[in-house]
Amino acid sequence: MDASLILNLVIFGPLIGMVLVLLAPADKAKHITWATTFIVLLLSLTLFPPFLNGSAFDGGYGENMQAVTQHDWINVVGLKIQYYIGMDGMSFPLIILTTLVMWLAAWTSWNFDTWKVNKGAKGYFALFLLLETGVLGTFAALDFFLFYIFWELMLLPMYFLIGVWGGAKKEYAAIKFFIYTLAGSVLMLVALLAMYYSSADATGTGTFNLISYATIDAIKANFNDPAHLFLGWNFGKVMFIFLFIGFMIKVPLFPFHTWLPLAHVEAPTPISMILAGVLLKLGAYGFLRVCYPIFPEAATQLAFLIATLGVINIIYGAFCCLAQTDFKRLVAYSSISHMGYVVLGIAVMTTTGFQGAMFQILAHGISSPMCFFLVGVIYDRAHHREINRFGGLWLQMPKYGSLATLGFFASLGLPGLCGFIGEAWVLLGTFNADFAWAKPMAVVAAFGVVLTAGYILWMIQRVYLGPERDEYKGYPDVTAREVGILTPMAILAIFMGILPGYTFQLMNGTLDSVLQAMGVAGKAIAAATIGG
Amino acid sequence: MPQSILASMWMPSADELAQLAPLFALVGVIVTLLLGAMFTNRNRNVAASIVTIGAIATGMLAFRRLQSGAPSWAGFDPTGMGPMLISDTFSQFFIVLACVFMLIVTSMWWLGQKSDLPDSEVHRHDATEFFVLFVGSAFGMSLMVSTTNLLMIILAVEMASLPSYGITAFRKKNRVAAEGALKYVLFGAITSAIMIYGASLLYGYFGTLDLARIGEKIAAEWTGGATTSTIFVSVALFAFMIGIAFKVSAVPFHFWCPDVFQGASIEVTTWLSVASKAAGLGLMLRVLSVILCSPATFPVEALSYVSWTIAIMAAVTCTVGNLAAYRQMNLKRLLAYSSIAHAGYMLMAVAILWRPDDAGAGLAHPAFSAVVSYIVMYLLMNAGAFFVIAMVYWATGSESITAMNGLIRRSPMLAICMAIILFSLIGMPPLGGFYAKFYLLSAVWSAGLEWLVIVAVLNTLLSLYYYARIVRAMILTDDGLPEFAAPMSGQLVVAVCTLAILLTGTFYAQTLKNVGDNNAKGLYAVVKTDAAARTASAE
């Protein structure tokens, strides 16, 4: 099959599954969802050969997009919108990550009937699949308007998934998530219009093509022209900030992070997995796809501010983790801390930084769903998440304890596991950057690694080590299903940690091209190509 | 001699009469209703049938005129002093919309009559009177979009308003309805008085009732700098516009709207929520565009005060509407404020009439297209939303937001459709409401009013909360209210509206834009002039 056809099927396959879920009896919903997400995963894996043999693999960006579908969608006087999707080294790994995490989350939803709120299985699984289409579409979209449509499409299913099937404070969590995200997207809408009409000024015909924005010289010059004003301010800077705020809410970056712990704690386990594993990545992906390639000037000027926010995320998130007594909340704050590395890596605009950020996106996409699932496993048995009430679980549940240690060590950034590589690359990239503040910034950020080790080890000590407690006597060890869900993530965590080169190879080419298009002289360290 | 008097009198030709066929048809419906009532002992079903058939017939006539495309506009212009009535694509399109909406409202009446709830007055013996007034207001609204003559505009606005007061007060024993109708009458009377005053000033100064001529004279007086008449004309024109702003329920002429919406029976609320605003906006666009486009190069600065007033009014209208909707517990009142907010968005398109446009030759200013697209979507969304509220009302007897609690269990189909409609009202993609808003905002943006777009998107954010409150009640809250079976035909209407919203949002997004563009072509007196010339005069 043609790669572009497969990509379309991957994006809209979940919608077909959604229709089936709605038509079939409610007790079959989870089977259909599992099968749909699994087929979508397999389909997305078949994209590997064409991707590895294609031009995107080594430096694809702009002309060298893979699996492209490009049709006019709305074409009237003064407005031209395209259905334009494709993939390159930035989106392809994330598409695979999404299909994998969604499949695992569908499998996690298998015990839907035992949930506290277990009504409306059809609705739950239908929204679940709609969410998958939204996420995959956002990763694949190359037309800004289409990107926006898919971006918004994710919002509604997530609102209901948290709001209906969540915990005690679900309604508040859901509306907070909704309002925060919509606030970001209305800013994006303003930028959308502004960029369209500015590109029309620059070239005569307006375009929403994200690649054209970054590669056509006339548009680039217009967007980054210091004399180009928008309501009295520099156009590039204003647009960059609008878009940045839109994406940073999703990351989430301090000070817009408050929706995240709430949403995570209230959401059911599979939804937390998706939220941490995939949805947070969309914000960072937005930086890489939209903000940085299109507005390099503004990005350079604001680098210090953004890097500072990244470091605040790292340190502040880690301190918050130390203070948590709720297991799930701790993992949620650790997500905030880890996403700080991504932002820092992007902010310094070096090759190593970009590579580290991208790697960290993927590594966190593996380790955080794993951590949330591990929390879910114990919550299903104990029905509480108080860290201080746990203890000695390793003795009671040896297999669970071992897998949990692996998962949390991956999150901690233990060398040999996936978390380490991303953090190391980001810190190296920051240290190496041209900015005067870069080296002190790297030193401060490195302190976050110590804090991370601190809260994770302390948590492991309180939950898994220590003497066996009577309260947890007789708890069954992880079931075959739970092992099945944990295994792919565990394997990937080890694989990415020991042989990072294969993962780097997927994206290095594209990231180099992006940096080149940005006109930023990327500083690569020789080590960036080890293992490949 | 009678002979010579007759010869000197102007008589319209058959062709000219044919152009006004939809308007005659509406008058015919009113006459048939009154006669039918006499012969059928005021049978309410007969009256409703007459309206149904009449609306279909009128809609078909107007639609045929739209399709024929032959003379895209034509006026009754016996003396060469400017026409009293015009019939162009814009007016015919609005008549088609009005007829579709009349059908929707009448079908709501049929269903409401069958509900278990005790009949309200609109459903009782007085149904004939209700329908006469109802069609009368539809006729007035059709006139509003078919004229550019000051006198005719005043007549049309009154023709639309007076029956509206009547149908609002139709729930005779209901205090809220009485209060709403009284407010409506008082506000209507005052704004009409101001409007007539403005018209008299314009007539007194320019000596003509024809807006095109007034436009030419304003342009002629303009000699590059401010003329003595600039302020005077702006004030007169603005006073005239107040009567129209009242129909649109633009802030600060909106106070009648929530009370009327809450008090009137739900059929009337549904009707007024869309039809009154659509006709008002159509008229406002018409009045201003005829003035601004009559001479080839109108000095747009001459009316810059009016332009700014309307832009600010649009911004204030949507903000006030959205903020006031927050605390509402009554669904009809909540949607009243929401309709004020949507009127604000649409007013933004009126504000860009002053800006040079880049539409091709033969096309009207993009403002027309934007408003047409928006109204089409708004009609679908409001019809669906009010139908759901009506069915919940018939089942529970309550219009409070708590009546919606747990709707997802009680009537899943209605809840899902309502959720989609509400998200479309917020303007979330991929739903039709988003595209309507997007086309409107992109027109406003390309006209250079970026700040208005920012106001609009911030308002989208404001509006989220109160629409989401209804969604929350329907889907997240459940206090064990009993299930109910909504009438199948009502569900069908809601489903059709929802499907249209979904399809417009996905596959037919361009169709919406095309509908807007096509019905903004070939307008009377908006002869496309060289865009460069207008640009030059705007700067």
Notes on the structure:
The complex is a heterodimer of chains A (532) and B (539). Chain A has 532 residues and is mostly helical. Chain A is 71% helix and 5% strand. Chain A is built from 23 helices and four strands. Chain A has helices at residues 3-23, 29-45, 48-53, 91-108, 121-140, 144-153, 155-165, 170-203, 210-215, 217-224, 235-250, 259-266, 269-294, 296-301, 303-323, 327-347, 351-382, 393-396, 398-412, 418-431, 438-463, 480-498, 500-518; strands spanning 66-76, 79-87, 229-230, 233-234. In chain A, the strands form two sheets. Chain A has a two-stranded antiparallel sheet. A two-stranded antiparallel ribbon of chain A has the order 3-4. In chain A, a hairpin with a 2-residue loop joins strand 1 and strand 2 (79-87). Chain A starts with a helix and ends in a 14-residue tail after the last helix. Chain B is mainly α. Helix content of chain B is 72%, strand content 0%. Chain B has helices at residues 2-8, 14-19, 21-39, 44-68, 89-114, 127-144, 150-168, 175-206, 211-221, 229-248, 256-263, 266-293, 304-325, 331-351, 366-396, 407-410, 412-426, 432-446, 450-476, 488-505, 509-518, 531-538. Chain B is globular. Mean pLDDT of chain B is 84; it is low at 527-539. The chains are: A mainly alpha (532), B mainly alpha (539). At the A-B interface, strand 1, helix 6, helix 7 and helix 8 of A face helix 18, helix 19 and helix 21 of B.
